[in-house]
């Protein structure tokens, strides 16, 4: 009878590259399911309750009026102010002076990314129309997840935060030409993004065009809140190795 142990995947194998993302999914699948289920319920209620549709008309009109400024400010606030409030509520008592530089830069980065997301939604509406049939929803979701996420949003966020950590030195951008950055860091994050966002994007693209970005910001708020608490649990040692 063989007593050999499983052989670890080679460092440069696809399996090794995506393993960190798979591990993160295994640890966080419960909050993922909660957010995804809540998003689906919200879409269901929107189409079942005329009063809810009427109530959201003001949000859609506000978004149309302010355009990309709405996207930039909304994305920045959701992804910087919300987690900072959550950190304070869970015991982080650092001063505003200590928090401000990182929080401000986070707001800037996610403001830019949200503007790019808004532009992508508009482009998809031009290409595929504004219908909410399953084929249109699926086309938009697949392009979002398989093109925009791995080639634009993940690498852009990583590079900009590395640029901040390196005191805004231009050398931070050199990683864009390095295979290890794409194969290990970007590809390593992809399973996590796919597991969380694919079901959510189906919900987002099920909404009317002018409500897609506001809906996405609601999900972003839930996403960053959960990860603040997950990070806290990691720091305190409450989360161990996944089975």
Name a few traits of the molecule.
6 helices, 243 residues, 80% helix, disordered C terminus, globular
TL;DR of this structure?
By secondary structure, the protein is mostly helical. Helices cover 80% and strands 0% of the residues.
Molecular structure report:
The chain has 243 residues and is mainly α. The protein has one domain. Helix content is 80%, strand content 0%. It is built from six helices and no strands. The protein has helices at 14-48, 50-89, 96-128, 134-165, 179-204, 209-236. Helix 1 runs parallel beside helix 5 (179-204), helix 1 (14-48) crosses helix 6 (209-236) and helix 2 (50-89) packs parallel to helix 6. The longest helix has 40 residues, at 50-89. The chain is globular. The protein starts with 13 loop residues before the first helix and ends in a 7-residue tail after the last helix.
What does the main sheet amount to? Answer: none
The Rg value, from CA coordinates, equals 20 Å
Q: What is the total tally of β strands?
A: 0
Please work out how many helical segments DSSP would assign.
6
Class of secondary structure makeup = mainly alpha
Name the shape in a single word.
globular
Strand content: under 5%
Number of domains: 1
The run of helices and strands is HHHHHH
What helical percentage do the residues reach? Answer: over 70%
First-last Cα distance: 25 Å
Mean pLDDT across all amino acids? 84
Task: Pick out the low-confidence regions.
Answer: 1-7, 234-243
């Amino acid at each position: 009878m063989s007593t050999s142990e499983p052989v670890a995947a080679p460092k440069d194998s696809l399996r090794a590259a995506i393993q960190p993302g798979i591990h993160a999914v295994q640890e966080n699948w419960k909050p993922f399911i909660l957010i995804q289920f809540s998003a689906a319920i919200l879409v269901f209620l929107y189409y079942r309750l005329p009063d809810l549709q009427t109530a959201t008309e003001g949000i859609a009109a506000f978004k149309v009026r302010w355009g990309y400024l709405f996207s930039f400010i909304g994305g920045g606030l959701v992804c910087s102010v919300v987690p900072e409030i959550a950190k304070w509520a869970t015991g982080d008592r650092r001063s505003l002076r200590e928090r401000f530089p990182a929080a401000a830069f986070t707001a800037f980065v996610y403001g830019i990314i949200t503007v790019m997301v808004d532009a992508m939604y508009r482009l998809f509406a031009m290409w595929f129309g504004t219908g909410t049939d399953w084929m249109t929803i699926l086309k938009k979701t697949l392009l979002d997840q398989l093109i925009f996420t791995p080639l634009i949003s993940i690498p852009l966020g990583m590079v900009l935060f590395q640029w901040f950590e390196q005191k805004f030195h231009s050398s931070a951008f050199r990683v864009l030409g390095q295979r290890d950055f794409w194969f290990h860091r970007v590809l390593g994050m992809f399973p996590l993004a796919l597991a969380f966002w694919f079901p959510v994007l189906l919900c987002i693209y099920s909404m009317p065009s002018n409500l897609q970005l506001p809906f996405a910001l609601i999900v972003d708020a839930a996403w960053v809140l959960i990860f603040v608490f997950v990070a806290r649990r990691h720091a305190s040692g409450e989360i161990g190795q996944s089975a």
